[in-house]
Amino acid sequence: MKRIAGLPASQGYAKGEIVLWRSTSGLLERETGLTPEQEEEKFQGALNLYGVQLKDLDQALDSKPDVDHSQEREMIRVYQMFLGDEFLWDKVRKAIREENLGAAFAVSRECKKMCDTFSMVEDPYLRERAADIRHVGDALVNLLAGRKETLAAAVSSREDVVVVADDLSPMVTMQLDKTKLRALITEEGGVTSHTAILAKSMGIPALVGTAGILQVAREGEEILVDGNAGVAILSPSEEERNRFFKKMEQMVQEERIYQEVAGRPSITRDGRTIQVNINIGDQESLAGLSEACWDGVGLFRTEFLFLGRTEAPDEETQYAIYREVAQQAGEREVIIRTLDIGGDKEIPYLGLPKEENPFLGYRAIRICLERPDIFLPQLRALLRAAVYGNIKIMFPMVVKTEEILAARRLLQEAKDQLRQEGLPFREDLPVGIMIETPAAVLLSDMLAQQVDFFSIGTNDLIQYTTASDRLNERVQSLYDSMNLSVLRSIALTVKNAHKQGIPVGICGEMASESPLLPLWVALEVDELSVVPSQVGKVKYLIGHLDPEHSRQALEMAMKADTIQPVKELLSQLTAATRERTP
Ligand code: PEP
Ligand code: MG
Asked: How do residues 49-100 score in pLDDT, each as one tens digit?
């Protein structure tokens, strides 16, 4: 039996069988004891094999002549073209020979360099080729690392899988078969990385920052994952297994109680309604949910529609998706956030430059304002879809009023275009912004005059306020939702929004952190937006918390100079509320 600790990024318990995964970024410079000549031979073998695989793939398409395969064939043709690109592969050979690198590492490094070069060219067609090079590079690395299959294929071909990886991008995670996946464990990453958020949305536990697990875990080994305590147990003893199943049973019982209130309005004990919305990343997320269990959509992360594709969804595709969600929601609000790409949400085909500090760089509204070719189709799709429901639009990562004004100008341009084309759209689409930077917090009195609502994005707000990267496991103790500066920032934002008479919600992960709910009740936050599996718990706590105790806790948090006593009081309050379970 082996016990490994990590950071709890998504709660819950799971049992399964390990599938190991080392992403290309985790490749070692030299993994084997091979000579450079042998590495070169291995590399040539991978090139040949991949060539054969592409040919097989092409021929396999012939067996379904009644389906249109033009896109796949075009993709295969481009991959074959890169496979024949001796300029690139000579660089790999040179790196193996002269720098004594392992073949897999050399391929990965050289393809990445080439990708970066392509990403920076003006021509959009060439920029999009960056994704193709990455694909070819990843396929070769897979072959060289002896992987017969992709992670997605490995998960699909087994039952009850727990993926144990060095790192997982949101793009790779999205492609995993949800019916087979039971938990995710990574050595790297932070608790609000988008991979962790995806795990939460799937309702499975996740641990991040689980240092050293790849060294001890074996493929196919039995594993128990405790996402509440942040512990993984490999090859558990019988005793450990029994203890684990007892905890699981307890959780199921708690869940039952929460589910009973999930479909009711969320009203505090002093009679105030706090809307509990859900966060989604696509239209399918609504499919498995009970209709009554969500008061609205508080955050639709539209960039997830752009991940896992080889090209951007066009206006019509986006329009159909937004319309479907709006129709499903009926009168309920659907807050759709415009593209928030960048940071850990990389979209290779958009050909954006590689950056040293992506979270401080070119992302979200910054990109959209400079790329009307990406932004306008989305704005047009949103305006058109808003005819069918209660859509509201929200801009991410705002740091100054001018950005709102510029975004509004583009929104106006989209309206003018639609009017000229005679396409129906909603003229008075409400516009809100995310408050997720210290700049936005400090300007919130001014920004509130420009928009119809605020939604506080605490995942980013914590990282920018405490200067701690949300993906970096080494600074996760500083990336603390209860840093007093973060709590003060939220309080100031709520106060400024209400002074201006606009509603304010919280859509980051802090919205569903149990110990923080007394603060949201006392601050009179209007809306909380959480992953669907948390709705019941949040509504239950809102309905049972003592308002007077909540006010006292808020007062203490605002006056405190150290956080520990506040943390203790808040956990006591929520624990006491849970114990009052009927
Ligand atoms: C946030 O930053 O809190 C947020 C909700 O946006 P994202 O997690 O997608 O950055
Ligand atoms: Mg954010």
From this structure: 888 888 887 887 787 777 677 767 887 888 888 888 888 899 999 999 998 8
Atom of ligand 1 nearest to the CA of 510: 3
> Which has the closest alpha carbon to 202: 223, 183, 188?
183
Amino acid at 123: D
How many CB atoms within 10 Å of residue 536?
A: 22
Q: Specify the pLDDT at position 167.
A: 87
Across 529-543, average pLDDT: 95
Q: How far is CA 149 from the centre of its chain?
A: 24
Residue type, 378: Q
What are the structure tokens assigned to 449, written together? 């005059």
Tokens of 409: 């100008």
- Give the per-residue pLDDT at 24: 62
Measured in residues, the chain has a length of: 582
Measured in Å, residue 134 CA sits from the centre of ligand 2 at: 26
Instruction: Determine contact, residues 572/545, Cβ cutoff 8 Å.
Output: no
Residues 329 and 304: beta-carbon distance below 8 Å: no
Query: Which amino acid is residue 483, in one-letter code?
Result: N
Q: Which atom of ligand 1 is nearest to the CA of 343?
A: 10
Distance CA 299, CA 278 (A): 7
* Better pLDDT: 136 or 319: 319
Rounded to the nearest whole angstrom, what is the distance from the C-alpha of residue 137 to the centroid of ligand 1?
31
Residues 441-470, buried b or exposed e (16+ Cβ, 10 A)? bebbeebbebbbbbbbbbbbbbbbbbebbb
Contacts of 69 (CB under 8 A, 6+ apart): 61
Distance CA 152, CA 437 (A): 35
Residue with tokens 């009970």: 290
Active-site residues: which are they?
A: 194, 507
Paired strand residues for 299: 279
- Closest by alpha carbon to 573, among 539, 555, 547? 547
